[in-house]
């Protein structure tokens, strides 16, 4: 029996991240962001540039994308980006991004291998389960339904469900409350340092997947109880 399985077997509940852990949503991000940028008459951005920006919520993603793209625009003109330009453009960018993301949600994404098998295994063992993501709830719920994953979870919480987002521990503590589980017996499964930091500070054990989006950094450099190449490897 592996150490990660021993960790799960000591738990009564599991909290699972969404983007980069259950679903590869990079295609959705790229499509919605580039449609938004076209609406704002700004140049497109490539997937490789987007990937390190993902994981801290849509607000952070949009500001990072605008900062990057506007820096390119102003570099071409030889002028620095005015400090107020991102703030001035943000409201329109968010409205257009939300419009496009909801329109294409799930169409350019895929469920990672082993996810549904892993979720089914945990459910069959009677573990309480929640999905906790920094993605807005209005994006997360339809995506889980589209991919056939929603019914595995007792609760789904997004980046706008609580006052703060991961890596703050508050979302994990609130999710444990909703599940009726103690943090020390609630496993966090994620793909990034955000998930690990939130779990450590909440007192939850954490297991990380070897794929996903970790802000461009090697995942095995992040402290965790263990690492898996697929959720199906993590058995109760």
TrEMBL record:
Record-annotated active site: 17 (nucleophile)
Organism: Comamonas sediminis
Positions annotated to bind Mg(2+): 17, 19, 191
Catalysed reactions listed for this entry: 2-phosphoglycolate + H2O = glycolate + phosphate
Origin: domain of life: Bacteria
Any GO MF annotation of the entry: phosphoglycolate phosphatase activity
Name of the protein described by the UniProt record: Phosphoglycolate phosphatase
Top EC class for this record: hydrolase
Entry-linked InterPro entries: HAD-like_hydrolase_sf, HAD-like_sf, HAD-SF_hydro_IA, HAD_sf, PGP-like_dom2, PGPase_prok
Pfam family membership, one: Hydrolase
Family: Belongs to the HAD-like hydrolase superfamily. CbbY/CbbZ/Gph/YieH family.
Record-linked SUPFAM superfamilies: HAD-like (SSF56784)
């Amino acid at each position: 029996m592996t150490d990660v399985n021993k960790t799960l077997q000591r738990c009564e509940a599991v909290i699972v991240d969404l983007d980069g852990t259950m679903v590869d949503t990079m295609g959705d991000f790229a499509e919605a962001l580039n449609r938004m940028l076209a609406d704002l008459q700004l140049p497109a951005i490539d997937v490789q540039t987007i990937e390190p920006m993902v994981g801290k919520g849509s607000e952070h993603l949009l500001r990072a994308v605008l900062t990057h793209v506007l820096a390119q625009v102003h570099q071409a003109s030889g002028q620095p980006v005015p400090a107020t330009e991102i703030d001035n453009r943000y409201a329109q960018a968010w409205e257009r991004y939300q419009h496009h993301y909801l329109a294409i949600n799930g169409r350019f994404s895929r469920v990672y291998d082993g996810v549904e098998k892993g979720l089914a295994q945990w459910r069959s063992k009677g573990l309480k389960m929640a999905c906790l993501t920094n993605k807005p709830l209005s994006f997360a719920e339809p995506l889980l339904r589209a991919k056939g994953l929603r019914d595995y979870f007792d609760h789904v919480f997004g980046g706008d469900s609580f006052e703060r987002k991961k890596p703050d521990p508050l979302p994990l503590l609130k999710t444990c409350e909703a599940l009726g589980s103690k943090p020390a017996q609630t496993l966090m499964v994620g793909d990034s340092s955000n998930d690990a930091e939130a779990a450590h500070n909440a007192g939850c054990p954490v297991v990380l997947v070897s794929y996903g989006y970790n802000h461009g950094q090697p995942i095995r450099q992040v402290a965790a109880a263990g690492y898996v190449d697929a959720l199906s490897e993590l058995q109760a």
